[in-house]
Amino acid sequence: xxxxxxxxxxxxxxxxxxxxxxxxxxxxxxxxxxxxxxxxxxxxxxxxxxxxxx
Length: 54
Prior knowledge:
The chain is mostly helical. It has 3 helices and no strands.
């Protein structure tokens, strides 16, 4: 059986809102901390507009 409290530990939003109930939507979804860290790395180190500055 899935332990919901352990699962919620992966999502930063639940740190300040432990009783929050989130219902997924097609527009967006909550991201676990591991994904947020990789996105931050990408936008901080690799993201660029191709041929915009030429």
